[in-house]
Design a protein that fits this description.
The protein is built from 13 helices and 5 strands. With about 280 residues, the protein is mainly alpha-helical. The strands form 2 sheets. The chain has a 3-stranded antiparallel sheet, covered by helices on one side. It has a two-stranded antiparallel sheet with strand order 2-3. A hairpin with a 5-residue loop joins strand 2 and strand 3.
Length: about 280
């Protein structure tokens, strides 16, 4: 099997990533051969290596593209929804049965403990997710949804530990009543709210612009594959060039009211080609 007639390089790459997510979840990282993924994608080994240099690279790339992204997807679907409310919605689903993407994170974490080639890109991946979560905390604090004294880094670590731990504790190992679990999550999120929401909101309006730093976005043209999610989610910040690849509008400066849209674009880019500066 060589390159499939009429299929672009981007489509072949997407086919490989989807096949990798399914095969890794089914057979595990150690039990999967590169040839297994190529066969599942309907391409040759050579076509696979034209896109990915190793099985480890393919694992982390598949995780980026098809791993758990529930919070990002919910934000994209309803960007005006309260972040605190979304945390409860996402948290409620943690005990549910996993799909292939949910098991993929387990395989990647286990492989990272044994294989340094997987460990380094996994550290990058976890760091990116933590930075994104911390950024959301900052937005929620400025909007008066969360206590401004809350550490974004600590909160991100808490969310990652909860989400990844739930990927290991599946319903067949330990089931939890949905109403009881929701009640617990609601109390936890409520404890993160400001003591006086009205006061925090007023303070934000009076002083939020003082001392603020300029936020900018950039796109790594070497990574961009032209999926178009950036300009779908943040049309005021991103557009497309003549070949359909993403590009920033103007100098990439992000107005305060577009910061959430910018972070949505960052989190939804499969190649992690967008960066907030």
């Amino acid at each position: 099997m060589g390159r499939i007639a009429g299929v672009t390089a981007a489509e072949t790459r997407e086919r490989l990533l989807r096949a990798a997510a399914e095969v890794f979840a089914e057979r595990g990282y150690g039990g999967t051969r590169v040839a297994d993924i190529a066969a599942a994608a309907g391409v040759s080994n050579g076509a696979l290596y034209a896109h990915f240099g190793s099985k480890a690279q393919l694992l982390v790339a598949a995780l980026r593209a098809h791993g758990p992204r529930l919070l990002a997807d919910l934000l994209a679907a309803d960007p005006d929804r309260s972040i605190a409310e979304l945390l409860v919605v996402v948290g409620r689903r943690l005990p549910w049965k996993r799909d292939a993407g949910g098991y993929l994170i387990v395989e990647a974490l286990v492989a990272a403990r044994r294989d340094e080639e997987v460990a380094q890109p996994m550290r990058d991946y976890i760091g990116e997710r933590a930075d994104w979560l911390a950024g959301l905390v900052g937005i929620a604090e400025r909007d008066g949804e969360l206590d401004p004294a809350l550490s974004g880094n600590a909160f991100a670590h808490f969310c990652l530990a909860l989400a990844m731990g739930s990927a290991l504790i599946t319903p067949d190992l330990h089931a939890v009543d949905d109403e009881e679990w929701t009640a617990l999550l609601t109390r936890v999120v409520a404890a993160l709210a400001p003591v006086d929401t009205t006061e925090q909101t007023t303070d934000h309006r009076d002083h939020g612009s003082e001392g603020s730093t300029t936020v900018k976005v950039r796109i790594d043209s070497e990574r961009c594959q032209g999926h178009g999610r950036c300009y779908d989610l943040a049309p005021d910040l991103f557009g497309e060039d003549d070949e359909g690849y993403g590009q920033v509008i103007g100098e990439g400066i992000v107005p305060p009211d577009n910061e959430r849209a910018a972070r949505l674009a960052v989190s939804n880019c499969p190649e992690r080609a967008i960066e907030i500066l």
